[in-house]
Write a structure and sequence with these properties.
By secondary structure, the chain is α/β, with parallel strands linked by helices. The chain folds into four domains: 3-102, DnaA, N-terminal domain (GMP Synthetase, Chain A, domain 3), CATH 3.30.300; 140-289, Rossmann fold (3-Layer(aba) Sandwich); 294-370, Helicase, Ruva Protein, domain 3, CATH 1.10.8; 376-466, Orthogonal Bundle (Chromosomal Replication Initiator Protein Dnaa, Chain: A), CATH 1.10.1750.10. 55% of the residues lie in helices and 9% in strands. The strands form two sheets. The protein has a five-stranded parallel β-sheet with strand order 5-6-7-4-8, with helices on both faces. Strands 1-2-3 form a three-stranded mixed β-sheet, with helices on one face. Residues 81-121 have low confidence and may be disordered. Adenosine-5'-triphosphate is lined by residues 131, 135-137, 142, 167, 169-175, 231, 264, 300, 333-334, 337.
Length: 467
């Protein structure tokens, strides 16, 4: 490639990446040579080489190969220490950003050092192409989290920072984060969006410490426009990673960069997490993904079935199968999806239509494992909520009707819906005797026959507990 062609190529890049990115990253690059299918480009610092490689590597390769079709790969190296590739002021800035790693090479050191894979501490986020907003089914349990994610994905002015998503296993936190990243990558390609798990954050931090590249690490993370850290609970109890996370977090918030975090519980309840981090995590918007309800599960199954059908149009699913699965598998969406995938694979292998019997056969282990064990405590909580009394009043000694009746309802449901014996139930109701429980159960059984309101309450509570 000639100097003129390189100049032409840079001009094209200016149009694509915009002036500010051009001045910061592209302008200082120098074309060195191209041999054996490898084009060598010198960047002023190690940090700049890594950054350009990660963000513009593909673009530059594409443009170079339009001038020289033999080029298959680009190698970035640091320019000689006395290079004038960037103005002095910017060089100081870049050197400061890259820290010790960018110090001028000693005279005896090789003039150029290829930027190795290990230097690339922030490779492109590995995003799952299936996790988009289009494939995310919205229902009551996740509508707030979805709406907040949508808002952040618009990429407008930062309104809540950080956005903290929490919820149990397999309820769609990662899916939503990836969906935000995909959306931003499409609508705002100029933004540097980084998604990674807290585990990867720690791994890169430890690697930077080991390689004495902590300044590179800091610069990389501080150059991010949108940072997403998944499963933040992973860094609980890991003191130095927490410390670094805290500083990265603060630096980005101070620069008004968007942060999105996910965790398995609300920030305030995270064990072994420093108080200052918990409090920082709570300062934006905290939203939870509730356990799925029947309607959401059915919606997800229908949506996944539609995409399976697109690949296998002759697939036959008998009525009632999806409803059965939505009713029986309530653990989490990952399990639900796994069940459906297995069912489709099995049906297509044996060439049978999907009936209720086939589903029961093929998924017997999942169905057994998903049988929900309702606890006495759950029943107590649900019943006290329903009758609007405090749990302590339900378990306490007061015999007034407004507490005694809900208490008996809860005892009745505990007898019906759990395998606990009367004495065991009694113990869980503030140490009551088994005869008291028996009396309560009998009383509610009678009332169920005579009192429509009680019958309705029982039915409603049973359905809520089974959901
Ligand atoms: N509302 C939804 N619509 C469609 N698919 C969903 C939904 N919720 C979850 N899923 C699917 O369920 C699977 C598990 O979701 P995901 O990995 O996002 O869960 P998570 O909350 O991050 O779990 P973990 O706590 O284990 O990290 C994914 O395949 C995801 O696509």
């Amino acid at each position: 490639m000639t100097t003129e062609q390189w100049g032409e190529l840079k001009k094209q890049l200016l149009e694509t990446v915009g002036e500010s990115n051009y001045r910061n990253w592209i302008e200082p690059l120098q074309f060195v040579d191209s041999t054996g299918g490898v084009a060598r480009i010198a960047a002023p610092t190690n940090f700049a080489g890594t950054y350009v490689s990660r963000n513009y590597g593909d673009l530059i390769l594409h443009r170079i190969s339009s001038f020289d079709s033999g080029v298959r790969r680009i190698e970035f190296s640091t320019a000689p220490a006395n290079t004038q590739a960037i103005p002095a002021a910017r060089r100081t800035e870049a050197a400061a950003a890259a820290g010790a790693a960018a110090a001028p090479a000693p005279a005896a050191a090789p003039a150029r050092r290829p930027v190795s894979a290990r230097d690339s501490m922030l490779p492109p986020a590995p995003l799952d192409s299936r996790f988009t907003f289009d494939t995310f089914v919205v229902g009551k349990p996740n509508e707030l989290a979805h709406a907040a994610a949508r808002r952040v994905a618009e990429g407008g002015p930062v309104t809540f920072n950080p956005l903290f998503l929490y919820g149990g296993v397999g309820l769609g936190k990662t899916h939503l984060m990836h969906a935000i990243a995909w959306e931003l990558k499409t609508s705002h390609p100029e933004l540097n969006v980084v998604y990674l798990s807290a585990e990867q954050f720690m791994y890169r931090f430890v690697q930077a410490l080991r390689d004495k590249k902590i300044m590179d690490f800091k610069s990389l993370f501080r150059s991010v426009d949108v940072l997403m850290v998944d499963d933040v609970q992973f860094i609980a109890g890991k003191d130095s990673t927490q410390e670094e996370f805290f500083h990265t977090f603060n630096a980005l918030i101070d620069q008004n960069r968007q942060i999105i975090i996910s965790g398995d519980c609300p920030p305030g309840e995270m064990k072994d997490m420093e108080e200052r981090i918990k409090s920082r995590l709570q300062c934006g918007l905290v939203v939870d993904l509730h356990p799925t309800d029947y309607e959401l599960r059915l919606g997800i199954l229908q949506s996944k079935t539609d995409s399976f059908r697109a690949q296998q149009p002759d697939l036959v699913i008998k009525d009632g199968v999806l409803e059965f699965l939505a009713h029986r598998i309530s653990t989490n969406v990952r399990v639900l999806e796994g069940a459906l995938t297995r069912l489709f694979a099995f049906a297509s292998l044996v060439g049978r239509e999907i009936t209720l019997e086939l589903a029961q056969d093929c998924l017997s282990d999942i169905l057994r494992a998903s049988e929900r064990k309702i606890t006495v405590e759950e029943i107590q909580r649900r019943v006290s909520d329903h009758y609007n009394i405090r749990l302590s009043d339900m378990l306490g000694p007061k015999r007034v009707r407004s507490f005694a009746r809900p208490r008996q309802v809860a005892m009745y449901l505990a007898k019906q819906m759990t395998s606990r014996s009367l004495p065991e139930i009694g113990r869980r109701f503030g140490g009551r005797d088994h005869t008291t429980v028996l009396h309560g159960v009998k009383r509610i059984e009678e009332l169920r026959q005579q009192d429509g309101q009680i019958a309705e309450d029982l039915e409603m509570l049973r359905r809520a507990l089974e959901a």
